[in-house]
């Protein structure tokens, strides 16, 4: 290099003193479990499988997570009720063949009250006692319009379900506001309406910024909501896909996530490790702020959720064999 070569500005090395370490920012350690800080309560979400291969994947996932004794596991309902039969068969198999407590998602869209009530009554008769009550979405590009004889909104569905049986009911909440809500305050009023109608818990849309969720809790409490609002945690392994999907459901994706995943596009192994760490950090921040229940969107894959649960101190009562989960690579 000669005297005319321009060099980019070099970062100034901070002075290496012990004082710098002693006065620098503080980070909380990973939580050590004790009687005073029990492991959090977890729940897991699955979607109903479309074919035999996905069915096998789902049940491998369920068997792997079952020993973690989640509070409940929920099974989604396809847009417009398209998976009604598959949701039903997954939920009833959970009742028959596992120790898990299933929660069936149920939506209002595209069905009359009588049809929705019949599905709910059938669940009750099969021993299902927990419903996640939702409005559902219109097909892409169409505005939502209630079925002429249907439940118009989730709050109406909650009230209808309570007339059928004393279901435990969870509803959806949106820390970043539902995409079609008139405004954030009216969206919180809607959440309160659902809880007042008989729901006992809200599960949130996934989010990545813990501060957004904590501010949402403040606003919910100020609006008179006292029921638990359980954060929905989505471990993300594919940043580009998550960014696209998040835009549709109104979840903001912070720039730091893009930076973390940059350069790993062809490196799935590293992406999975980053995904686990990001989700575990998110949970840890919320735990440090008093939150002790978490709902994981598993996408029917157990390994990330299992690893994060383990970090949080949620472990099987009896250690699993070394080979557990080996079938679920990739
Ligand atoms: C945890 C979770 C699980 C989900 N599971 C599924 C699933 O299994 N299947 C599926 O299809 N979708 C699912 N969804 C997506 C959900 O169906 C959509 O987000 C849908 O657009 C809204 O459903 P909701 O139950 O929140 O609706 P609602 O609570 O009824 O609210 C929908 C919108 O209408 C507004 N609103 C409510 N009442 C009124 C009123 N009286 N007048 C005017 N506006 C009103 C609300 O502010 C909001 O903007 C899930 C979402 C979450 C967060």
3D structure, described in words:
With 330 residues, the chain is of the alpha/beta class. It has eleven helices and eight strands. It has helices spanning 18-23, 52-65, 84-97, 113-125, 154-164, 184-196, 210-222, 239-249, 255-261, 268-288, 303-311, and strands spanning 41-46, 72-75, 102-107, 130-134, 168-173, 201-206, 229-233, 293-297. Strands 1-2-3-4-5-6-7-8 form an eight-stranded parallel beta barrel, surrounded by five helices. Helix 4 packs across helix 5 and helix 5 (154-164) packs parallel to helix 6 (184-196). The longest helix has 21 residues, at 268-288. It binds flavin-adenine dinucleotide. The site of flavin-adenine dinucleotide has 24 residues, from strand 3, strand 4, helix 5, helix 6 and strand 6.
Could you give the order of strands across the largest sheet?
A: 1-2-3-4-5-6-7-8
Give the CA-based shape. Answer: globular
Give the quaternary arrangement of the chains. Answer: single chain
Structural class: alpha/beta
Bound molecules: flavin-adenine dinucleotide
Largest sheet: 8 strands, parallel, barrel
Helix content: 40-55%
On the 0 to 100 scale, the average pLDDT is: 91
The strand count comes to: 8
List the helices and strands and how they pair.
Elements: H1 18-23, E1 41-46, H2 52-65, E2 72-75, H3 84-97, E3 102-107, H4 113-125, E4 130-134, H5 154-164, E5 168-173, H6 184-196, E6 201-206, H7 210-222, E7 229-233, H8 239-249, H9 255-261, H10 268-288, E8 293-297, H11 303-311
Parallel strand pairs: 1-2, 1-8, 2-3, 3-4, 4-5, 5-6, 6-7, 7-8
This protein binds flavin-adenine dinucleotide (FAD).
The site of flavin-adenine dinucleotide has 24 residues, from strand 3, strand 4, helix 5, helix 6 and strand 6.
């Amino acid at each position: 290099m000669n005297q005319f070569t321009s060099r980019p500005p070099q970062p100034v090395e901070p002075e290496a003193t012990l004082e710098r370490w002693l006065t620098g920012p503080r980070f909380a350690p990973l939580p050590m479990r004790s009687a005073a800080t029990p492991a959090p309560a977890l729940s897991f979400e699955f979607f109903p499988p479309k074919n035999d291969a996905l069915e096998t994947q789902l049940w491998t996932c369920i068997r792997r997570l079952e020993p973690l004794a989640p509070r409940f596991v929920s099974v989604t309902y396809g847009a417009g009720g398209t998976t009604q039969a598959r949701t039903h068969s997954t939920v009833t198999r959970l009742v028959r063949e596992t120790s898990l407590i299933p929660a069936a998602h149920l939506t209002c869209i595209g069905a009359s009250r009588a049809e929705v009530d019949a599905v709910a009554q059938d669940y009750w008769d099969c021993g299902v006692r927990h419903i996640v009550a939702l409005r559902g979405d219109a097909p892409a590009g169409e505005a939502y319009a209630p079925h002429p004889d249907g439940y118009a909104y989730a709050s109406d569905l909650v009230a209808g379900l309570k007339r059928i049986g004393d279901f435990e009911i969870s509803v959806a909440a949106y820390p970043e506001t539902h995409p079609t809500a008139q405004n954030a305050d009216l969206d919180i009023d809607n959440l309160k309406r659902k809880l007042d109608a008989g729901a006992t818990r809200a599960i949130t849309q996934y989010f990545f910024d813990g501060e957004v969720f904590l501010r949402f809790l403040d606003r919910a409490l100020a609006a008179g909501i006292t029921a638990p609002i359980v954060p929905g945690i989505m471990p993300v392994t594919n940043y580009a896909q998550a960014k696209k999907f998040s835009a549709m459901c109104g979840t903001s994706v912070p720039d730091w996530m893009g930076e973390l995943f940059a350069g790993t596009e062809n490196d799935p192994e590293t992406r999975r490790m980053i995904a686990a760490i990001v989700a575990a950090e998110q949970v840890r921040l919320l735990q440090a702020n008093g939150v002790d229940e978490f709902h994981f969107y598993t996408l029917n894959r157990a390994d990330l959720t299992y690893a994060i649960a383990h970090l949080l101190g949620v472990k099987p009562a009896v250690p699993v064999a070394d080979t557990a989960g080996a079938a679920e690579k990739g």
